[in-house]
Amino acid sequence: MARAIWSGSLSFGLVNLPVRMYAATESHTVHFHQIQRGTSDRIRNKRVNERTGKEVPAEEIVKGVDAGDAYVLVEPEELDDIAPGRSKALEISGFVDLDEVEPVYFATTYYLGPRGKGYAKVYALLHRALKESDKAGIATFVMRNRAYLVAVKAEAGILALHTLHWADEIRDPHDEIGDLPGRTKIPDRELKTAVQLIEALSTEWHPEEYHDTYQEQVRRLIEAKRAGETVEKGQEPPESTNVVDLMSALQASVDSARGTAKRKRDTGTGTARRRTGKRRTGGDGGAGRKAARTAGLSGLNKAQLYERATEAGIPGRSSMTRDELLDALSGSGGRSAAKAS
Questions:
Q1: 112 with 10: CB under 8 angstroms?
Q2: Angle of the 322-330 helix axis to the 302-312 helix axis, nearest 10
Q3: What does the pLDDT look like over 234-258, one tens digit per residue?
Q4: Which of 37, 95, 117, 164 has the fewest CB atoms within 10 Å, i.e. is most exposed?
C-alpha cells in the first residue's frame, strides 16, 4: 500500500471528511548520477557555509529571506503556526463546472482516500454528488509550507485532487510569444483540406497505446554501451513546410492518413486488435515467401518498420532493433504489413 503524502480534513458546508492524499503518478525517467570523467567516482552535492567553506548539518539550517540590510530567519514551526488550519484543513469554498477550468491551470494530480472505513459513506456521497453534478470543488490548503489552489473531482470510483496554478502564475501568450499570427486569411480550399486531415487522423483516446519511446531508446543505449555495441542514430527532424507547398503537403497527408486507415481495416489491426495484443498469423511460412516479404521491407528505415510493426500488432516492438523489427515483420506478422505496402 502506498504511503500517504498528506492527511487532513476535507470539508464542504458543515460536512467534514478525514482524508489521506496519495501520489497519482510516477516518473519512469532514467535517472543519471554525476560521475567524474575517466573514473567511477560519484559527484555529491554538499551544503556548505559560503563564508567558511565547511559543511553544515541539516538540523542547523533554517530558512532566511534577504531583507536588504540583513536576513530575516524563519523557523519551520513558525511557518506551521501561520498556515491556515495548521496545514490540516482542505475546505471547499465553492463548486464550478469542469468545463470552466482551462487546461493550463492544471498542475499535478493526486488521489484522495477516506481515512478509515468509518468514513466510506461520506466519501461515496461526495463522489456521487460531484459525478452527477459534473462539477469540481475548489479549495485551498497548505502542504510542505506552501499554499495550493486545488480542484476536487470525481473520477473512476475515487476522488481526485488536482493542484491548480494561481491566476497570476499563468503567462499571457501574447506577452511571451513575439510572432503570434494576427488576422491571417486562410484560403477555403486549404482550410477544408486541413479539416479533412484532422478527421482522417481522428481516433479514440487509449492512453495505454502511447509509450515514451525516448526513454526506451535511452535504456537501449545504456544496454548497448554495457555490451560494447553501438545503436542506430535517430532520424533527423523533418524540414519546415514551405507556404508554397502547403496545399500539396496537406493533400498528401490526407491521402497517406486515409491509406493507413484503410490498411488497418483490411488487415484487422485497428484499435481493438492493438488493445488485445492479437495479430494475424499465416499457415504457410514458406522460406521463399518470407524472403520475398523481407525484400519488400528491407528498404524501410527503423521508424517505418516500427510503424508497420505497430499496424501488425507485433508484441515487444518498442524494444526491438531495426534487424529484429525486419525479422518480425518478415515472419508470421509481416504478411499483413507486406500486403499493405
A1: yes
A2: 40
A3: 767 677 666 667 888 888 888 888 8
A4: 37
Same domain, 193 and 164: no
* Cα–Cα distance measured from residue 250 to residue 195, given in angstroms and rounded to the nearest whole number: 10
Looking at residue 268, its pLDDT comes to 65
pLDDT confidence tier of residue 334, bands split at 50, 70 and 90: very low
Residues 339 and 193 both lie in one domain = yes
C-alpha distances in angstroms, 20 versus 17, 159, 248? Answer: 10, 11, 56
The CATH number covering residue 125 comes to 2.40.290.10
Q: Provide the number of structural domains found in the chain.
A: 2
Q: Are residues 165 and 191 in the same domain?
A: no
Are 153 and 92 part of one and the same domain? yes
Q: Which three cell numbers stand for residue 330?
A: 518478415
**pLDDT number for residue 166:** 94
State the residue range of the domain holding 20. Answer: 6-27+81-169
pLDDT by residue (tens digit) across 67-94? Answer: 888 889 888 778 777 765 556 888 899 9
In 3D space, the residue among 140, 197, 190, 166 whose CA is nearest the CA of residue 11 turns out to be: 140
Burial class (CB in 10 A: 0-12, 13-18, 19+), 194: middle
Angle, helices 322-330/287-297, rounded to nearest 10 degrees: 140
Distance, in Å, from the CA atom of 330 to the CA atom of 208, rounded to the nearest integer, reads: 26
In a domain, 207, yes or no: no
- Quick check: is 99 in a domain? yes
Q: Of 8, 1, 12, give the one whose Cα is nearest residue 148.
A: 8
pLDDT at 277: 42
Query: How do residues 14-62 score in pLDDT, each as one tens digit?
Result: 899 999 999 998 888 888 899 999 999 999 999 999 999 999 998 899 8
Q: Over 80: is that where the pLDDT of 301 sits?
A: no
- Enumerate residues 6+ apart whose C-beta is below 8 A from 278: 313
Residues 97 and 16 in one domain: yes
Give domain status of residue 39, yes or no: no
Three-state DSSP state, 311 = helix
Which amino acid, one-letter code, is at 160? A
Given a cut of 80, whether residue 340 has pLDDT beyond it is no
